Amino acid sequence: MFAPKRILVPTDFSDYSDDALRQALELAKQYNAKVYLLHVSNPVSQCTTDYCLDPSTFQQIENYEMLKAKEMMQRELKKFPEFQEIEVISDIREGEPVEEILKEQEEKGVDLIVMPSHGKTGFLKRLMGQVSEKVMEEAKSPVLLVRH
């Protein structure tokens, strides 16, 4: 019988991601597993076509984005007080979502990925659907898609 011990949950802080996190926490409680909560943020560009930010302003923006993501991660975890006894390790990475999710899986020795079948709405919904599909194709462990 499959009993996961390390569960990875990628999040974009949407309600869909909350559903996936709840499912992962329930599995973790049942199997006494760790949960790795991962948010992948898009890199901030220092330059556009005809303008570049000075290095100090660019650094301030990057720091602000990281701080905002950390605050969102804390809010995410506070939504589920009934699972406080479960060990949840959060991580924030910058880069391309599929690549970073697969890196996290490899580095943490994850044996199950739980993620929403799609993201927020509109373009993000379609993008997360593509991310989920690619992760399913390339992951070395089972992927549980939580549908809505």
Topology diagram in text:
Elements: E1 6-10, H1 15-31, E2 34-41, H2 55-78, E3 88-94, H3 97-108, E4 112-116, H4 122-138, E5 143-146
Parallel strand pairs: 1-2, 1-4, 2-3, 4-5
Helix pairs in contact: 3-4
Kindly describe this structure:
By secondary structure, the chain is an alpha/beta fold. The chain has a single domain (6-146), classed as Rossmann fold (3-Layer(aba) Sandwich), CATH 3.40.50.620. Helices cover 47% and strands 20% of the residues. It is built from four helices and five strands, in the order βαβαβαβαβ. The protein has helices spanning 15-31, 55-78, 97-108, 122-138; strands spanning 6-10, 34-41, 88-94, 112-116, 143-146. Strands 3-2-1-4-5 form a five-stranded parallel β-sheet, sandwiched between helices. Helix 1 (15-31) links the parallel strand 1 (6-10) and strand 2 (34-41). Helix 3 crosses helix 4. The longest helix is centred in the middle third of the chain and has 24 residues, at 55-78. The mean pLDDT is 87.
Annotation field: number of helices? 4
Please give the number of β-strands: 5
CATH class (first level) name: Alpha Beta
Do you know the CATH topology? Answer: Rossmann fold
Total domain modules = 1
The main pleated sheet reads as: 5 strands, parallel
Q: Determine the N-to-C terminus distance.
A: 27 Å
Q: How large is the share of residues in beta strands?
A: 15-25%
